[in-house]
Amino acid sequence: MKVLLVATNQADRFMDRMVVRPVPIGLAYLAASVDEERHTLRVLDLMFAEDAVSEVADAVSDFEPDLIGLSIRNLDNQSSLNPVWNLPAVRDIIERIRQISSAKTLIGGPAFSIMPSECLDYVGADLGIAGDAAEAFATLVERLDADADYRDIPGIVYRDDANGGEIVVSEGRFTSSFHRAPRLDLLDMRAYNGSGFGVGVVTKLAQAYYPTPGADFSGGDWRIRDPQEVVDEIRALDDDFGINKVFFIDSGFNIPAEHAKATCQAIIDAGLRVRWNSYVRPSDDADAELMGLMKESGCSLALMAEGGRGGEGLSDRLAGLERMGALCRQVDLPFTMNMTFGEPGDTEASVEQKLDFLKRVDAAFAVLRVGTRVLPNTGTAQTALREGLIESESELMRPTFYTDAGVRDWIADKLREEAAEYPRWNLM
Ligand code: B12
Predict the structure, then answer these.
(1) Is 4 in the pocket of ligand 1 (CB under 6 A)?
(2) pTM (2 decimals)?
(3) What are 2-53's pLDDT values in tens digits?
(4) Which residue's alpha carbon is nearest to atom 64 within ligand 1?
């Protein structure tokens, strides 16, 4: 079978400002799972494409694939001030494919996995696989090749012809082991070098990455990678591509601290010359020793996530963030802050409290969000439903922002005025 994999992401910004182009490592994991003794594989990355639809059409005409897998990374840029919705571009690509080919179209990726049935319906693909999908994808390729039933594959999304074409999303989404190295050699890694926060290397995966009903930070579902495997992958990036800048893919690198320390220590012991960045989040077990090891092993920026999605009060949340910021400062580790304004319950007083906090913590840069990007299965989605902002969670496939009525009329102007004084604050 001939398989064409297409990375559709063309966004080249982080927080609408900094130039960041994430390497499509998820697609590279998929490529690694294909048995090339049995199938022919081609990868097309649209990140640097001038005319995405034409490039896909040319590749399809030339290669004549039987299966076309498209990854969808972002639903949108999450900016309420300048919203950009990414799904129409994917829909255009699939529409063009249909005009020139009878290949089956398959979609997947982080954005798709948040709203699988809505995305499948909207972009008009034949099939999807939600969640981590390398092994599931390899199985699907074999089943399609053998013309066999695929409906038992974990996370598979399909139209049930026996049931009026109703879209079915199967159970089981978090099955990948990440033991087989991603096929980065199929991407233009030289073009990516230096284009942002570094090449993604997975250190830990958890459902908390996705706003699904089961997502939490308790650790029950963590798949933590062996530090030695991480070291080997970093070394290979240097050996194969001369790349020394990586981004640890992790919902909170510092949690649990014991594993984070072991990973840092393994990097130090291996003598790697790596500079790395990752997300960190407030946690009681973070301490000066951990921060020292992070810094010593090459951490150059800690992106502070907004804490757990628990219902704790604002003061506690800010105290947790402040403690993490202080730990970073102790070892001279630059960190970012990320603050949402207009969350359910925000008032003039809580806005002031958040602004005072941002002025105090001295982050390398801070992102101030005007409104919350509402995602399904969250408390904010419930509030949005209750207050009539949306009629159904399906609408959340489009950029949708919740801003509490208590601050809605003035919050954007207020933040613009404040940010004028702080060049390292970015409004979105
Ligand atoms: C790390 C990360 C970043 C890093 C990237 C650093 C780097 N160099 O790679 C940084 C901080 C830069 C970043 C930026 C942004 N990010 Co981000 N990021 C992530 C995070 C935590 C991990 C992504 C990742 O690499 N995963 C590991 C790889 C191996 O997995 P994967 O790509 O998901 O691929 C697997 C599956 O998806 C599937 N799959 C992938 N492709 C395909 C294709 C097919 C055909 C199939 C069947 C399956 C499949 O199989 C793969 C292997 O298991 C995710 C959270 C998440 N849920 O994924 C958010 C996430 C992807 N980001 C998100 C967003 C919104 C953004 C930003 C727009 C934020 C902003 N406002 O600027 C920017 C966009 C940047 C850009 N230019 O595109 C959203 C996207 C969805 C959405 N809400 O729209 C996510 C899902 C977070 C969330 N829960 O909302 N991000």
Answers:
(1) no
(2) 0.95
(3) 999 999 999 999 888 888 999 999 999 999 999 999 999 999 999 999 999 9
(4) 74
* In-domain check, residue 418: yes
Residue type, 45: D
- Give the Å distance between the CA of 135 and the centre of ligand 1: 18
**For residue 237, what are the domain limits?**
184-427
Q: Is the CB of 106 under 6 A from ligand 1?
A: yes
- The full DSSP string for 57-92 is HHHHHHH--SEEEEE---SB---SSS--B-HHHHHH
CATH number at residue 143: 3.40.50.280
Confirm or reject: Cβ of 200 under 6 Å from ligand 1: yes
Cα 414 to ligand 1 centroid, rounded to whole Å: 31
Instruction: Answer yes or no: do 369 and 269 share one domain.
Output: yes
Q: Is the CB of 91 under 6 A from ligand 1?
A: no
How many domains is the chain built from? 2
Kindly report, residue by residue over 268-327, the tens digit of the pLDDT: 999 999 999 999 989 899 999 999 999 999 999 999 987 544 445 899 999 999 999 999
Identify the residue whose tokens are 């830990």: 204
User: Can you list the positions of beta strands (E) in 238-326?
Assistant: 245-249, 275-280, 299-304
